[in-house]
Amino acid sequence: MSRHLAGLRAWLWQRLSALYLAVYLLLFLLHMLTDAPGSYSEWRASLSDPWVALAMMLFFMALLMHAWVGIRDVIIDYVQWSALRLIMLALTGLGLLACGLWALDILLAVMK
Amino acid sequence: MANNNNNRPVFLNLFRIHLPVTAVLSLAHRGTGVLLFLLIPGLIYLLGLSLESPQGYQQVLSLVEEPLWRSVLILIAWFLAHHLFAGIRYLLIDIDIGIDTVISRHSSWMVIIAGIVVMLITSVVLL
Questions:
Q1: How does residue B126 score in pLDDT terms, banded at 50, 70 and 90?
Q2: Which of A17, A80, A102, B46 could form a disulfide with A62 if both were Cys (CB 3.0 to 4.6 A apart)?
Q3: A7-111 CATH pick, 1.20.1300.10, 3.30.1130.10, 1.20.1250.20, 1.20.1740.10
Q4: Do the domain assignments include residue B39?
Q5: Would you say the C-alpha torsion B103, B108, B113, B119 has a positive or negative sign?
Q6: CA distance A21 to A17
Q7: B44 in contact with A at a CB cutoff of 8 Å?
Q8: Degrees (nearest 5) of the Cα angle B109, A78, A64?
Q9: What digits encode the pLDDT tens for the residues B72-114?
């Protein structure tokens, strides 16, 4: 994972994911301020639209990618002992991967 | 090497190192980023809970009613806004906007103030 997300490529992904996160957050906030779902069924119905669910899944993918690059940089900068560094990187990666699968599971369940 | 002196003093009194505001902003961007990273599982948990059942949906909404959670949400809004605004500033600097020392100090203060403004607005909306 780190091979593919290192150096210039990581730098670029960090910025692309940041842009998607910023735009998604802004639109989500605007939607919540102007046309918030009034009930459980409305909230669920809004996410059963595949495009809405896809946009949210992309949000989570961008979030996890953004978090991975950022936390990877922080760990590499501050954790000097290489064994601990490797363990922390592995735990972070696995944790983020699990979060992604969890979010996917939630969003797929709504569409059923 | 005549100048090789292993007894050079190490000056690392953190309270006497004065960071410029741009460095404080950089640290805060990292700090808020790490905190927001730790909140990701909580966010996904709340999403799942809100979609699971009408009771779960109500439970998520009622978080805003509790003073403790309300304070936590206001803090999260502040961290997120700060991270977002500082990030926008870095994106602009990437394309050479605001790269000048004086302007970058001004923009740092603008980011800090904008973050606090968002926190205050969130407080007013939630309280």
A1: confident
A2: A17
A3: 1.20.1300.10
A4: no
A5: positive
A6: 6
A7: yes
A8: 75
A9: 999 999 999 999 999 999 999 999 998 888 999 999 999 999 9
SS3 A101: helix
| Total-model pTM | 0.89
- Judging contacts by C-beta atoms under 8 Å, the chain A residues touching residue B33 are 67, 70-71, 74
Each domain of chain A, given as residue ranges in start order, spans 7-111
The reply to whether B55 falls in a domain is no
For an interface test with B, the pick among A40, A79, A92 (most B C-beta atoms closer than 10 Å) comes out as A40
Which two tokens mark A55? Answer: 């946009």
Q: Domain for residue B57, yes or no? A: no
